[in-house]
Amino acid sequence: MAANSQFAMAVHILTFLAKKGDQNLKSDMIAQSVNTNPVVIRRILGQLAQADLVASQTGASGGTRLALPPEKICLVEVYKAVSCGEVFALPIRQANQDCPVGRNIESVLCNLQKAIDRSVAEKLGEFSLANVLEMVDLEDTVAP
Amino acid sequence: MAANSQFAMAVHILTFLAKKGDQNLKSDMIAQSVNTNPVVIRRILGQLAQADLVASQTGASGGTRLALPPEKICLVEVYKAVSCGEVFALPIRQANQDCPVGRNIESVLCNLQKAIDRSVAEKLGEFSLANVLEMVDLEDTVAP
DNA sequence: GTGTATTGTAACTATACTTGTTACAGTTAT
DNA sequence: ATAACTGTAACAAGTATAGTTACAATACAC
What we know:
Oligomer: homodimer
Helix content of chain A: 55-70%
Shape of chain A: elongated
Number of domains of chain A: 1
Number of strands of chain A: 2
Structural class of chain A: mainly alpha
Radius of gyration of chain A: 19 Å
CATH architecture of chain A: Orthogonal Bundle
Order of helices and strands of chain A: HHHEEHHH
Strand order of the largest sheet of chain A: 1-2
CATH class of chain A: Mainly Alpha
């Protein structure tokens, strides 16, 4: 399938919201920065709103803003908000339960999966949205 | 898409090979343990062979065996052998280059992606195939 | 040498997920 | 009232995976 880029888009969206500060931004404006359709943006904003990372307002002069200051928004939360969150998948079909390997490999793989997911979460935990904003601004000053 | 389970299948396959020791195993037998088609197994074995983790022989009484002892096979190598290897994808469409955020977010996300991938690789580096085999055997002894 | 078993690989199908798009009901400022 | 938004459903298009069939190439066994 097309690879899932929702986390990347979510970070882009949040960075954009952080940069523009305390105003209701329209999905249309955000879509222009991300270069996609406003509905795609609103879908991701919906997930971020459920995680209480952003707040939206309907109606005229509505829009979306951050629900927390950028320092308080951690990339783990963003990742959890948009992703199903497994680095590798387990096979759909059940392995052969009459085989000593097939019978037991699944739980071992499942534990391994959890260990990997934890280490991804830990690494993402090191970054806040404020950090991302800093990095973006830095890129802009040193750009070619 | 169907989520990519090649890494999980690869670990299963290698564990099976390790368990059966120094003999040429047919893709047919392995397929029975994994509960899939032999061609699916051969496709994965092909990738593992390219990474020099297994060795195959064509012809009658051919098959596949480990190219290294289980202690020397690390799960990072397996992951690299079968996976394209990114935890999250970057958007396909290029962001708006006229926007300060769109112009710079891509390289920031790309660096973040690399950091995450490194931490996954580090965690996988902690496990060898021998470890997996131990865990599978342990599961079998304490099974309900 | 002939026959048989097995890998390697191409080609195709079915399925499923993601993105993009249109459409529209519901909501709120002015 | 009107206009400008969000939220969301529905659908199309693109693409990746897994499964399957088929077959050429290869190597052992006799």
